[in-house]
Amino acid sequence: MEALKIAVIGGGSTYTPELIEGFIRYYDELPVTQITLMDISTERLKIVGDLVQRMLGDLPVKLVRTTNREEAITGAHFVVTQMRIGGLAARALDEQIPMKHGVLGQETTGPGGFAKALRTVPVMLDVARDVARFAPDAWLVNFTNPAGLVVEAVMRHTNVKVMGLCNVPINMQLSVADCLNVAPERVELQYVGLNHLSWAKVLVDGRDVTREVLETQWGSSGGEVNGDYLRALGLLPNYYLRYFVHPDHVLREQLTTEETRAEYLQGVENELLEMYSDPNLKEKPALLETRGGAHYSTSAVRLIRAIAQDRREVHIVNVRNGHSIPDLPQDAVVEVSAVIGKSGAHPLANGSLPPAIRGLTQAVKAYEELTIEAAVTGDENTAKMALFTHPLVPSWDIATALWNDIKAANKAYLPQFKG
Amino acid sequence: MEALKIAVIGGGSTYTPELIEGFIRYYDELPVTQITLMDISTERLKIVGDLVQRMLGDLPVKLVRTTNREEAITGAHFVVTQMRIGGLAARALDEQIPMKHGVLGQETTGPGGFAKALRTVPVMLDVARDVARFAPDAWLVNFTNPAGLVVEAVMRHTNVKVMGLCNVPINMQLSVADCLNVAPERVELQYVGLNHLSWAKVLVDGRDVTREVLETQWGSSGGEVNGDYLRALGLLPNYYLRYFVHPDHVLREQLTTEETRAEYLQGVENELLEMYSDPNLKEKPALLETRGGAHYSTSAVRLIRAIAQDRREVHIVNVRNGHSIPDLPQDAVVEVSAVIGKSGAHPLANGSLPPAIRGLTQAVKAYEELTIEAAVTGDENTAKMALFTHPLVPSWDIATALWNDIKAANKAYLPQFKG
Amino acid sequence: MEALKIAVIGGGSTYTPELIEGFIRYYDELPVTQITLMDISTERLKIVGDLVQRMLGDLPVKLVRTTNREEAITGAHFVVTQMRIGGLAARALDEQIPMKHGVLGQETTGPGGFAKALRTVPVMLDVARDVARFAPDAWLVNFTNPAGLVVEAVMRHTNVKVMGLCNVPINMQLSVADCLNVAPERVELQYVGLNHLSWAKVLVDGRDVTREVLETQWGSSGGEVNGDYLRALGLLPNYYLRYFVHPDHVLREQLTTEETRAEYLQGVENELLEMYSDPNLKEKPALLETRGGAHYSTSAVRLIRAIAQDRREVHIVNVRNGHSIPDLPQDAVVEVSAVIGKSGAHPLANGSLPPAIRGLTQAVKAYEELTIEAAVTGDENTAKMALFTHPLVPSWDIATALWNDIKAANKAYLPQFKG
Amino acid sequence: MEALKIAVIGGGSTYTPELIEGFIRYYDELPVTQITLMDISTERLKIVGDLVQRMLGDLPVKLVRTTNREEAITGAHFVVTQMRIGGLAARALDEQIPMKHGVLGQETTGPGGFAKALRTVPVMLDVARDVARFAPDAWLVNFTNPAGLVVEAVMRHTNVKVMGLCNVPINMQLSVADCLNVAPERVELQYVGLNHLSWAKVLVDGRDVTREVLETQWGSSGGEVNGDYLRALGLLPNYYLRYFVHPDHVLREQLTTEETRAEYLQGVENELLEMYSDPNLKEKPALLETRGGAHYSTSAVRLIRAIAQDRREVHIVNVRNGHSIPDLPQDAVVEVSAVIGKSGAHPLANGSLPPAIRGLTQAVKAYEELTIEAAVTGDENTAKMALFTHPLVPSWDIATALWNDIKAANKAYLPQFKG
Known about the structure:
Four copies of one chain form a homotetramer. By secondary structure, chain A is an alpha/beta fold. In chain A, 48% of the residues lie in helices and 16% in strands.
């Protein structure tokens, strides 16, 4: 049996049991030989690691825990990144600060995602450089949000082999299959866009059934996006599109809700850690699903399997654009269908986007490009310009005010901005 | 002397004396032999035409007035379009309706420009088809706003020879020259974008002086755009950019001003018509400048001269993109430098836009493309989608509400929307 | 069991038993319910059809023979085209005429392929139009040479669902696997170019082993292309590349050989038909392999299976370029890896070609584009220009002389050229 | 009066009086203050420099002669390069060697041009690096052949401001004007391609008269290209196109001519130098025209004037492609219309080439790209591949044989090939 070592950076996350559950479920097809959980918190490594050990039971999988990144990465075939710089406390600020300025607060979209990107990109580049040094043949599989932007930063600034993964595509496929009452394998998504800003045509047995899906309950609620809009559009949306289609609703909801999502999740997290500490717990608790990571493990393990076994099958991933979507720069990272094997991700040639989605996608990509530049250079003008170019930021004055608050609140995590 | 006939569609406009003044000023270099003013209002033709006749004085220029478009166009070498469908009354609604929904009201930018486009495109296509029938070799020179969108509609739906002209480029050149105290000819604008959404680098004697200009009074006030933003950007803006950079300021101004710009201009227009009726007036009155058409005639007459005399010199015009700006569709109309001669407008190859202006330009172009489609097809979903894709429209609900009000208010001018 | 009907246009070909053998071999996985052989020769239908019937034995596959194309196509799910307009007699002329002018004679490359294209395109367009009328949902799978050019003609002039298939890719994969002593599935070809003008990198388990393959016996003989050239190039060639790399050797061979390939194949064909007539023969005879169709049936049946069963797996096919190879026009047909399912062929985004193969590929594609135009319009200037632009035609005078001879010799098959 | 210093690298060339004659003719409009002739031959500097001094007469132009490149370049506003590495002796070999292998021998096209490029590129890069050090604001104006390839090498490997100039465009314009009996200014060339591989549409007063020109004596002889071919093409050719259209004729001519062009020119050159030595000669002798540099000085001086005076007028130059011809790489150098001023050359956006010229242009550009790579790296495989990709080289064997002979014959000038 061939060795297959997985390093999980941010392995102390409460998500980890979800990922492990996937490796266990697919063990027969993909026998992992070692899993290394790396985290900066020894306490987390203890609690989460103990649960993982109990979950693994008798499987011949070696479990290693470490706070040393070099140790974790050395010898790994896959380095999985699922970090959250600043933890849920920083996320809470990402959600609260924009609201002060009349802009919706969200983890990955808008000014919240911008702040998260500035905190995350430098750490991800450090991880990527460690991969280049200690495991140059390994694949970096990134789950850290904003997943597409982070992958683009790694691609622009290192030579590491990297792809990004999100669970939105698999959830879209499964929910559509459920809604149409067909097997998921029969559902083909012709999927284009960016991470958390994507659209799909749906085909079943090669026939375009997008309009039919939009007429079902999926169209009215599944995407949380206005049905009239969707029918005018004729495409299935990533549900993050609601932040662009209904920022007014979302902001109103947020302003009238007692706790932010981060605060709510803080409670869930505490509850999860308590559960995990129970020495009788030997599987992923159902509560974990509410954190939003549904089917992550399926998607992740299948992707790793496709690479490890050189399957050359189609997955939807975050990958360098090239000419896949000719309306976007070649160096942009996009979320599209790609053929996945040992030689990497080869995106399909998708052709141009229709105008109803083209301008928005291009505008957000320009924002991402500037945000990466700001995160890497620490240039404040670039940071303000990045915020201003985001479609949810309505004016330069608000961009400036947001920047001042974000900089102050994230001081500990933004050493690149010395000004 | 060769015949040179100019037909002015919308010749009863109070702008007409500005245009005529240009033909008179350049008469020695470009001896026009006939000017035909065509308008739907006989009253306007009388007042404006009489003034024009007095302005022309002894020049051997034949002046014709007509309400018959075929008569006006037949035999023309240049057909100049300066129409305002619905007049200033419709413009007042374009400015007022958006404000009701918390969106700034403006003649050419945002929902106001959208409504104007829907009214204007069908009429412009009728004019273009008349040019194709009655003067197929003539050049259609369009001043009608939204000037770029209207030219794109004509190019997508007819084979007429057309270019669009705006006075923003010449004003930028003259004001920068003034500010730097150099002769205007020494100022080179490296100018890219769309009509009313454009940017320039400034060179004097081949040296980039953009940053120096931004540090002058031009940078602080000339463009009416925030100086910090401009310094972060490093480019000179079209002053219409203020609607995108400071929509909040503009809306506040508009909400606290007693009359809209259209209402103000209605007053100016009445005053102008009264002046024009004075049989002693023999020149363009100074008051006309306040309508915003400064240097229009210079720009227009020089452009016509460049075509008529095959000068192959550089002008900034609205022209089919091709690969001039590779970030935009080939069939898009863009406002860029082009070599102008008898064979038409040949745009320069500009290369890609920097991300700080790329996304916004692409988003507005996608909006323009959908607006043309809506104007031509009369499809309501496309109309709503066009509004939604405009960067100043913050949500689908507001797009829908705007559409309902615009449709109701413009009923008389939107026969294509039968639903 | 679902119905699956295959119509074979040119079903009287001596190749047909090869194709049928594939359907039989894959019957368990792809149970075909009906095969219709259509041909213009009743004699061929009798001989070949009788053998096919004996080969099918007890399999529940209905065999139909007809000279009526409408009957064959109606109800078909796949229409397979394997015609040879003018038969081997015309091929013999394609091989002989160029030699008279010092140019190598070959069935699909150079002036011979040009003549074949002019004969074939109009008939293929007729077939395609019949598919559009009588089986609009069917897939047209073309084997007729020149396979890429013919598919491009169909795509430019009809809306039929079509892809083209060649056995070079499968043979390259199998021979490389053999040479490296690995299972064929482990061999990944990163394959780009045109039909009969293509190159590949070879990967095994994701690792680039191209240089290693070029050092084996494959590199020295498998491709029939000079080893120094291949090592300078660093890519595996389609063996048709020998006509471009060594036209001098090939011409010398041809001039010193007593019979052309067509004449040799005429002998083989007669022998085959005699064998087929033997009522005791119940399988494809080994002699058929010598005709050059090795593994055709495997490739064809797997492709049909991928479509019919919506497998979305990677095959190398002839497909519309779009932006797959950005150095070639979007409407060009290219031979590249594509994801194949019920919704068709979705090519991968390959990126630009290296200069060592870029210019030749672009030159041949320009030739193909002109040849299609000549075949469709019957314009003689375009025909001569097409010949002249072919890299193997050394001058305009020779292009002209070739055209005169080709036109005269193919008179019966080129009704579009009336001049 | 502003200083304007011109440095001429290769100033001892017998062409120099042609260039000087231009500066004298345009002196009133472009008052040059200093001309520095730099050459490696003191003898040439003496003879040519003395003549130049006599030609300048009383004009207040300082003439400097030097063998020191640093001295020549320091302080220059324009550095003009007109070198011939290896002199006419090397050119004679460029013409003779290909003929031995049945390929036409020509100074800039085919294997001859390849050898010249390998000798020239390293020296040009040295000159360009000197310009970068000693006159970083100067413009490098290159006349050295192969002019486009050499400029591309400089652009790919230095940051110097450079453009390339050829006298073919001005000769085409003047000869067409003569043929049509119109003033040259009325002739507009819509000109695309590469140096010595270009085509044009001709317009007079904006009307396309290309077909009319092709029917005149110009069409039958002016271009030295077969009239049937030109009529099929519908474009005016650069006369170097004859080497691609009629390589058979040219080779036959060359094989039956007693002396090569280089040998003939050697005689002319000796005669010229003798004339130049006559202290009574004070102007360019008529014999100089026969060397093929007709109108070079007009073209060169006008170009320098356009830059020096920031005229922003259209010239046809060799410039970085960008998206000017979208069928060619962005980093390619092309010969197209560009707006010329102090900020450099801004090419027009030309759109795609028609297939009849597209493939050939792309093939030659791929050859040029490989040749530059070979010249810079000294890699023999790249050199052979470059030769093989040239459309006039018929096979790999001939490419190899040519390479061996070129390498041996040019040993003294190809230090980069150490193998």
